[in-house]
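Quick log. Single chain, no ligands specified.
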Amino acid sequence: MSTWTDRLGDSLSRFIEKHDKATRLTLTAVAASALTATGILTYQATRRRLQSHSLLHGQSRRRSSLHASIPAPLTLSEKQIQEQLYETTAFLGQERMDKLRNSFVIIVGAGGVGSWAALMLLRAGVGRIRIIDFDQVTLSSLNRHAVAVLEDVGTPKVTAIKKHFKRIAPFVQVESCIDLFNAETADALLSGSPDYVVDAIDNIDTKLDLIKYCYDRNITLLSSMGAGAKADPSRIQIADISQTLEEPLARSVRKKLKKMGIEQGVPVVYSTEKPHHVKLLPLEEERVEEADDYAALPEFRSRILPVLGTLPSIFGMTIASYVILKLTDYPDFDPLAIKLRDGLYSRMHRDLLSREIKKYKSRTCALDAHDVGYIFEEMWHGKSVISGPNDRLALTRWVASEPLSYHNTVCMTREEAKAHERLPADVNLREHYGDAICDAVQDRLNKERKLRELWDDVF
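-> predicted structure:
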């Protein structure tokens, strides 16, 4: 069978014979060039295929050789360990990598957040990791756990984690403690002078025990707030507990810590998102009277918030990144306060206080700067309820006769707020502003009221 190049040559020969000598010479040169180029391209394509084949088989042989060099149970030479940690070392530098490999981190809580934090600390090369949790792997926890698989269901979470971790980084010392952390067990469980403690506990009482224990003893700690019922990864922040915006668990923790004499100095990972469409998972009717029987331990919640599995993993990896950089004294690492708007919130808070004093003769303001930030950002998205985006905004009461609160505060431009406050006491706001604006305001205020009822029930 003739090739396409043979057919091309025959066609060109017949074409050339029909023309004069000069034309034939020109066409012959063109044809020769085309055939030469075709030959070169064919040769290059064949060579690339052979090189690709050789490369693939060479990589396969190298991979097989590497696997063969690691006997079971897995053991790695120092050279192999350095190769496994190469990317992290390249990022941090050798001196900081040495610090990391000599570090000791304790993670309390081995669920969705804690397991991911532990996994990424392990992969980074933290030398010693202790994981504390009393609970077992369940089928429902597989949507968010970092390493647990079906065969781990029914086994302690820390046991499953240690088993899988040995297959990833056998050179890391992993300690698993099947125990419940509380004030009585704290001394034993946190022994050994850890360089960092990660709080990934989902029970508020034991979370407070851990925070206070570490705070009183100057043990460096990073605490995770709630990842349940959250969906927006862009809202995850790192801040001091005193700077957290209106996040339900953070708010509850902040208030209780204040009663313990702790107002700041506790860094936390939290989300500014306040979900509108999720609720506590209900107990089945036959379980209601025996709710305690379905809790992991007495006084632990048996009703839980639904969890989108991606969010705990992002919380955990955020924690791991923070801890790694802090342990290694990474330069210029200082997480920014949310949106760098603290100054704006303080200014708006002063303006609101001034309005309350002048208009309503109130000596205090029921909302603080954090409340102002939440209302401005989360409730009204930094826009006037009347005219939309503007760079001269203020907060004011919606209904003048009702007290200032989350359920009665709106965002307007400064001029709109002044005009709103001059309205007669008996004004009909719906007639004044129209149905569209009033419906939008009432809908948002009602959502906020329901949210507060929901989260107050949770925490």
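The chain has 16 helices and eleven strands.
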